[in-house]
Every structure is written in C-alpha cells, then in structure tokens.
Amino acid sequence: MRDLPHWHTASAQGPRKHNADAAGTYAAADGTGIVFALADGVGDHPNAAYAARTAVSAATRTAAGRGAVATVLAAQGAVLASGGPGDCVLVVAVRTDEGYGIAWVGDARAYAWDGYSVRQVTKDHTLAQYFRDHEQPVTPRMEHVVTTSVRTAGEHEIGTATVTTGGLLLTSDGVHKTLSGPTMLDILAMPDRAATELVRTAISLGGSDNATAIVVGPPGADLTTEKFRVAA
C-alpha cells in the first residue's frame, strides 16, 4: 500500500453574494489513486456555484488511472449534462507513480512546493496571458477574462503539466491574484494550517473574490485535514 499524502482544504467567501468556489478530493483506500480538484464558478450567481460543485464532484469520481485530462473531460461532461447554464474554471491533480499529473482550464492554478520553494506549474488561460504571449499591452480587465472553461474547452485546449517531487498547492484566483509568491511560501511554512491561512490572508488583504486552496504536503510534512464547507 502506498502512503497517502496529507492534505488540507479551506475556502472563504469574499465580498460576493455567493461562494462559487468548490474543492474536493478522492483517495483510493489502497493508496493507488488520488484526485484533487478545485473549481471556481464564472460569475457571482448560484448557477456558477452549481457548475463548480458539479465539476469537482465528477472530477473526483473519475478513476485516477484515466489521467488528468480525462478527469477534466469527465467534469465537462457532467456540467454539460446538468442542464444548467453555469460555467467554471478547473484545475485537477492526479497522483501517479511519477508524481502528479496536472490538467486545467481557465485561471485556477497549481503550484509545486517542496518546503523551501514554490513554483507555478500552470499557465493562466486568460486574455491577459494571451496578449502577454504575443507581446501586446495588457489591461487589468483582461486578467479576469478566461479563454477556456469547463463548459467550452476542447480537449486540445486543456493545459497539462507534471510535478515529480514535493507537494502541491491548488488555488482559485481569489488567492493567487491577491497574494505574492513569497507571501504564499511564508504561509506554506505553517503546513498544519496553510490552506486556512492562505484564504484568510487573501480576504484580509482586500481580495475581491472568494478564496479557496488545497495544500498537499511534500514528504514528511505534518498536515491536518479540515472539513471543507461546500459552496452555497
């Protein structure tokens, strides 16, 4: 049996009417498969929250052996089949023998961390990033316009990455668009409450969005698991 990593999830509602973030995890009893999923609903509406919960539920029910892209596609199928108009962005991490397979759409992020450094491994699917890639000027509004989502992405548009060592941090933009890399690393130095502190700090520093994080400890980290309050 493979040792299960320790993980910690937390979410806080920012100055919004609804917390449209969602997060979830499924771990096989024998330790052979673990799926982490974090979604952020597009818009401040119950439909967005429902889409995020639907995507996370479908992603974490997908067998880890199918891979990270298949996990995102399963989430897409569930959102499309739900009949609702809501949409969301999503990042998933699937544990493999080599580490973690990452897949994402939109601007939910994954970071690798080893207790000493934190490194972003996803690349935002936003209009701002598209313009940066083409060396064009960027306006603040572009940071909030996603170019892929669970509902709309084609399979070839799903981003992929691999993390081979250490732990993981998955965040909604309410965390990573408010906190700097050094601030996140300082908080990750408190592994027993890192997820809670990440979202609390993001909100307290004036974050304008909901904030959600999943912290997966690197080998040897002493993390605890906190009950996650699902989106309203």
TrEMBL record:
PROSITE patterns: PPM_2 (PS51746). Residues 6-218 form the PPM-type phosphatase domain. Coiled coil: none annotated. InterPro entries: PPM-type-like_dom_sf (IPR036457), PPM-type_phosphatase-like_dom (IPR001932). It comes from the Bacteria. This is Serine/threonine protein phosphatase. It comes from Amycolatopsis regifaucium. The lineage of its organism: Bacteria, Bacillati, Actinomycetota, Actinomycetes, Pseudonocardiales.
